[in-house]
Amino acid sequence: xxxxxxxxxxxxxxxxxxxxxxxxxxxxxxxxxxxxxxxxxxxxxxxxxxxxxxxxxxxxxxxxxxxxxxxxxxxxxxxxxxxxxxxxxxxxxxxxxxxxxxxxxxxxxxxxxxxxxxxxxxxxxxxxxxxxxxxxxxxxxxxxxxxxxxxxxxxxxxxxxxxxxxxxxxxxxxxxxxxxxxxxxxxxxxxxxxxxxxxxxxxxxxxxxxxxxxxxxxxxxxxxxxxxxxxxxxxxxxxxxxxxxxxxxxxxxxxxxxxxxxxxxxxxxxxxxxxxxxxxxxxxxxxxxxxxxxxxxxxxxxxxxxxxxxxxxxxxxxxxxxxxxxxxxxxxxxxxxxxxxxxxxxxxxxxxxxxxxxxxxxxxxxxxxxxxxxxxxxxxxxxxxxxxxxxxxxxxxxxxxxxxxxxxxxxxxxxxxxxxxxxxxxxxxxxxxxxxxxxxxxxxxxxxxxxxxxxxxxxxxxxxxxxxxxxxxxxxxxxxxxxxxxxxxxxxxxxxxxxxxxxxxxxxxxxxxxxxxxxxxxxxxxxxxx
Length: 530
Prior knowledge:
With about 525 residues, the chain is of the alpha+beta class. It has 11 helices and 28 strands. The radius of gyration is 25 Å and the shape is globular.
């Protein structure tokens, strides 16, 4: 059950202040324009909101410049401005404010500069360890592991609760930093990195392909057609941005999950709830083909195909519709384009080179008792009624002792411990290289960071209400995960839990992300780094 702290979403601000004045200079073209940018917090009140003064000066402007634009951290256009000036902005306390300045010049690339000010706080009432202990006491989360980094340095890590709750049949097993968890949709970021790696590797070869390739030009054994569109082109980049017009239907979630090799079904109090057609394919290729293509073959009915539920009436490239099935399609297309199953490619080119020893695709790849057992308290209540013999009740939770696997594995099938996920994230933050092993080119990683799309190759922008971060969150039956980084400060985090958190409990994700980010700000302020 969720405590009243999360139901009422009470945010307790503590007194500020550490004040910084930052100046950044960016010179992109020799002897060309330079941008001097200063952000100064101007009020010392402990009450929200905080006010800061933004001052800019663009010097060495060449003749013919067209505009100087200021953009705020949340995409709000402050507007076209004079070469020098100032403006006041307000933000809630305990946040990061980022300003982006762009100078447009005819015949030259835009000249840009970016700077952030973080409004750091005094030491919080609870330490990080105490915060997470309290979180587990207040929520339905049996176990959790987390890592916090600033730049390349790990500044905190912790493991709390149980990877398996005690019962009459077995003793309790605590979570450690080595405990693997289901990563859920954090997997999508690795699917995106695999695509970028294969794209880089194919550049200049006969097998070269573009991120703007038509999905129907990727050698799939079937064609994709949105029946609600005419002559549409669906590209890999659109799928990576969740703007492909291929969407999840109401049964997508239930058909994606296999529990002990069978679709996830519930038998409660003698009533059977079957959410996925029993005749639906359980193999990856069969399920993707059944979902996206119609058939008139009575011996092979595509029971998952639905022209209205599986496709959007919005043209590709326009409407943002998060889609697990589209990611599965992209993973399948990878196999036919590259010639290697995506799971094997990830193992060969990401997992093994980075020595991510705990990262695996299937639950059966772990010895018994190692992988964190998944739990849920659905339907909500202090007690649960046994669903069936495979899903017992343990201390008021449903316990998925036969771990869950995902048919469309590119969208959510990986498992790993928090240390290995942090190493993977560190590789991205280090420009595609970790400990001398290069996975991606720095230019490719830079595109992930600075893409104009809110989602690019499955890396998303996440708003915690206090800071904008990049990365991904994940949720599946028995698991909730988060992997985020703040480009403005270099603060990054990973947290893995063995309980599913429904969307309406999103405040738990935000509380965790904000508390970890806050600790990173305190660390930065202690170093007095501008």
